[in-house]
Amino acid sequence: xxxxxxxxxxxxxxxxxxxxxxxxxxxxxxxxxxxxxxxxxxxxxxxxxxxxxxxxxxxxxxxxxxxxxxxxxxxxxxxxxxxxxxxxxxxxxxxxxxxxxxxxxxxxxxxxxxxxxxxxxxxxxxxxxxxxxxxxxxxxxxxxxxxxxxxxxxxxxxxxxxxxxxxxxxxxxxxxxxxxxxxxxxxxxxxxxxxxxxxxxxxxxxxxxxxxxxxxxxxxxxxxxxxxxxxxxxxxxxxxxxxxxxxxxxxxxxxxxxxxxxxxxxxxxxxxxxxxxxxxxxxxxxxxxxxxxxxxxxxxxxxxxxxxxxxxxxxxxxxxxxxxxxxxxxxxxxxxxxxxxxxxxxxxxxxxxxxxxxxxxxxxxxxxxxxxxxxxxxxxxxxxxxxxxxxxxxxxxxxxxxxxxxxxxxxxxxxx
Length: 416
What we know:
- This protein is mainly beta.
- It has helices at 202-208, 214-217; strands at 3-8, 13-15, 19-28, 35-53, 60-82, 92-99, 103-105, 123-125, 130-134, 138-151, 154-155, 158-159, 164-165, 168-173, 185-195, 230-240, 242-244, 252-257, 269-287, 293-308, 313-316, 319-321, 338-339, 343-357, 360-364, 369-370, 372-374, 414-415.
- It has two domains: 3-173, Immunoglobulin-like (Sandwich), CATH 2.60.40.640; 185-415, no CATH class.
- Strands 1, 2, 3, 4, 5, 6, 9, 10, 13 and 14 form a ten-stranded mixed β-sheet that branches. Strands 19, 20, 21, 23, 24, 25, 26 and 28 form an eight-stranded antiparallel β-sheet that branches.
């Protein structure tokens, strides 16, 4: 076939409610001067669908919406201009325009997941474009497509020539409609008791030194530490339950010193190492060959930041905003958190912290805590749907002071 349909659109990226417009042209790719083509009709469709496939099972799709526009009705012989002559006034072209819906509806024939992991509401916000493939777990996608079709003339109910179909995929994104998420935090706590002569001033260490007993020298008994100075404290690492793509993560580190249980004044605490991980979790739901339904889940661990403070170690007094001493920005190319009929993308955040106190390092092992990622782009006019509330694993009843996302305080005191 030496002729074809060509789609011309000014852009390929839209959000719900935008107008998708352009034109469909009949062009010739094999004839320098163009050619005549018998045309029965030309139409264009705009559709959205979500598809899941769990290897080696059959794909399962839910249609989100479907629009169709008839551009030309024949039968008639039309001229297909050369595709290289984009400014040719003899070209046959037809404009089209669609408005992307703000929400979508599952058709009656589509069964929906009953699990709370998915959004089973038959009417819900239009989801964003999405593709994820996992060799072992399966694949899932949310695809929006423009598809013009040329049908040849019919005679006695039969087509008399060749037809043509063209597919162009467009990207649908979503802006966040809140400038900043409501502050709520998950907390990881770890309590420590540290005994050491180093907790004392240098001039007092010799006075507090106790010689070993006979049994301790013969290793018949472990050396006693009861006489040593004692520091009792708790380290808290706070991670947000919601964050914005492309923005720094508001991570707060607290040191709560128990003066009553300790035998020395508060020592100096220095930050030695911070490691931040993000766990990307994809869940999908679909049909199996027995006629039932299956769900699949796969995860991917993403290292966000690993910072070693070797020489200039930030001092931690009562609390420290980690954004002041390291880059905690989230990758802007990640997909925001979303739930739809048969696909879900969620995230969890884990932070490891290593603090030094009186010559000894104390490690806080992080646990994965849910963190909803919001879109990087902000638009106050975006339709205000009620998004699913973030899952709080361990909400802190003692939240940190309010964060200022615009200005930052001075960098804390460092120690060499």
